[in-house]
Amino acid sequence: MSGAVATGLWPVQSCGLHNDVRTAHRAVATTSIQIQLDKHVTQLLRCRRCPRMKSTPVSGGATVSDVMIIGQAPGPREPVLQRPFAHTAGKTLFRWFEGFCGMNEAAVRSKIYFAAVCRCFPGKNSSGTDRVPAPDEIRNCSLWMDNEIQILQPRLIIPVGRLAIMQFIDCARVVGEAVSFPYRLEEVIGRKFRVARGGHRFDVIPLPHPSGASPWHKIPPGRALTERALKLIARHPAVATLCQGRRR
Ligand code: SF4
């Protein structure tokens, strides 16, 4: 009985047709998401809402993905090179992904959507380090992130660094998990959280910031906890699916 399954009552077309229909639906949905995301990124790049920022926005491009990486804010190099994590922190981040997930920098950039707490370089403070974005700037830019979450409906978000983690791990957003606030990195790195934001629920697996400025991820207990987090990311179904070259 080729092409049909005997149920005892009625011949039912086998999964071949259903698979074709599902594939067609997925293609239409992905095209629609791509159109929305293209428009979103075009508008984001024109944003000039924060007058104290020292660069125009940096975007990783309109990569439709079930996984989002959230950085903190670009440094001085990223606006010039026009991509996030373009300098030393990026080197470490992409080495982590290559070592634990088997994805090199090109694969990560082409399969994962990059966002950030703020998309513009905040400038330097009086001590010569990068200025931490102000609350009003974070609020302004969170509208872009909320829109990205609504468009992509990600299954996994990976916030990188304390400022990015704080946007997701707080009492209001974590679903069914006990975290003390304010938290220490030791309490959140190496764990997976279920988080609600923008009317959507997703997993969050935080990473420490990979910049050379903090040795936290290189010394105990940060080193082991960072490895545990990267193993959680590698095993997450959304990442496994990405490695196979498809969405959900
Ligand atoms: S930080 Fe965000 S909200 Fe502010 S100007 Fe840049 S893109 Fe716009």
Describe the 3D structure.
This protein is α/β, with parallel strands linked by helices. It has one domain: Uracil-DNA Glycosylase, subunit E (3-Layer(aba) Sandwich). 42% of the residues lie in helices and 12% in strands. The strands form 2 sheets. It has a 5-stranded mixed beta sheet with strand order 4-3-5-7-6, sandwiched between helices. A two-stranded antiparallel sheet has the order 1-2. Helix 1 packs antiparallel against helix 5 (135-152). The two termini are 31 Å apart. Mean pLDDT is 88; it is low at 1-12. Iron/sulfur cluster (SF4) binds at residues 47-50, 53, 57, 118-120, 137, 140-141.
Topology:
Blueprint: E1 4-6, E2 11-13, H1 15-45, E3 67-71, H2 77-81, H3 88-101, H4 105-111, E4 113-116, H5 135-152, E5 156-159, H6 162-166, H7 185-188, E6 193-197, E7 200-204, H8 222-235, H9 237-243
Parallel strand pairs: 3-4, 3-5, 5-7
Antiparallel strand pairs: 1-2, 6-7
The site of iron/sulfur cluster has 12 residues, from helix 5.
The assigned CATH architecture is 3-Layer(aba) Sandwich
Q: What small ligands are held by the chains?
A: iron/sulfur cluster
Q: In the CATH scheme, what's the topology name?
A: Uracil-DNA Glycosylase, subunit E
| Helix content, binned percent | 40-55%
CATH superfamily: Uracil-DNA glycosylase-like domain
Strand arrangement, major sheet: 4-3-5-7-6
Instruction: Please tally the β strands and state the result.
Output: 7
Mean pLDDT: 88
Q: Helix tally?
A: 9
